[in-house]
Amino acid sequence: MKNLICLSFIIMLVSASLAQQKKETLAILDFNVVSGISPRESVTLTNIFRSELFKTGRFDVLERNDMESILKEQAFTLTGACNSAECAIEIGQLLSAEKMVIGDFGKVGETFSITIRLVNVSTGKMEMVLNERFKGDPETFLEIVKKMAQQLSGTYEEVTSLWWYVGGAAIVGGIAAIVLLKGDDSPGSTERTVGTPPGNPDIP
Questions:
Q1: Under a CB-based contact definition with an 8 Å cutoff, are residues 100 and 78 in contact?
Q2: Rounded CA gap, 85 and 70, in Å?
Q3: Angstrom distance (rounded) from CA 35 to CA 50
Q4: Per-residue pLDDT for 114 more than 80?
Q5: Looking at the predicted structure, is the pLDDT value of residue 163 above 50?
Q6: What is the DSSP-derived secondary structure letter of residue 80?
Q7: Measured in Å, how far apart are the chain's first and last C-alpha atoms?
Q8: What single string gives the DSSP state of each residue in 29-79?
Q9: Short-list 43, 39, 46, 36, CA closest to 111
Q10: Short-list 35, 30, 71, CA closest to 49
């Protein structure tokens, strides 16, 4: 009896572990261009977003070429921009994807904007809507799409930097700072590690 209980418990643990490891299949459609950037730039930024979302490890992200091959096999022709939930659901069903991502790039005056929506294919519901606005160079989109990929996945990149106490001031840096500023333990040294972010370092 005890052996049976132990076996059942092990099976439950293994099943729970496998369920946690299973990733949802997600497909990302090329973001629609409203204004401000070219269609080619939109494809590039969409690919960057796809790559950044894949890096989070949160979803099983379909490659763009694989999506095109599957849709071609299904004799599906995508005419014009697909930036509605209905269109995303239809394509998601053909791709056997559980989640779909659609988005828009735009510009009003000097302000750029990007809107990204996560759609559940089975329920048809919009599960998440992200929006970012900024002024400046369009290249800022590169950092914006990376940030939004992390927001959508709920997985954030860990950044580790060392704080250094140098001549009465605290500075933060990575490898370069460590090489240049690494202090020694000799008497009179004014350079030493004082803390790690987040939070302010404890300046002695």
A1: no
A2: 20
A3: 21
A4: yes
A5: no
A6: S
A7: 63
A8: PPPEE-SSS-HHHHHHHHHHHHHHHHHHTSEEEPPHHHHHHHHHHTT----
A9: 36
A10: 30
Residue given tokens 């005419």 in the structure block: 79
- Average pLDDT of the chain is 74
Residue 127: pLDDT above 90? Answer: yes
Which neighbouring-strand residues pair with 116? Answer: 103, 130
Domain locations along the chain: 23-153, 162-195
Q: For residues 87 and 81, what is the distance between their CA atoms, to the nearest angstrom?
A: 9
The architecture (CATH level 2) of 23-153 comes to: 3-Layer(aba) Sandwich (3.40)
Q: Is the pLDDT of residue 169 over 60?
A: no
Q: Six-digit token pair at 170?
A: 């605290």
Q: What does the pLDDT look like over 55-94, one tens digit per residue?
A: 989 999 999 999 999 998 888 876 666 878 899 999 999 9
Higher local confidence (pLDDT), 112 or 3 = 112
Beta strand 169-173 with 162-166 is: antiparallel
- Cα separation, 27 vs 175, in Å, equals 37
Residue 177 tokens read as: 């700072």
How many Å apart are CA 112 and CA 136, to the nearest integer?
A: 8
| Residue where the block lists tokens 């494809």 | 43
- How far is the CA of 37 from the CAs of 5, 81, 138, in angstroms? 62, 15, 8
Instruction: Give the phi and the psi of residue 174 in degrees, each rounded to 5.
Output: -100, -135
**What 3-state DSSP class applies to 150?**
helix
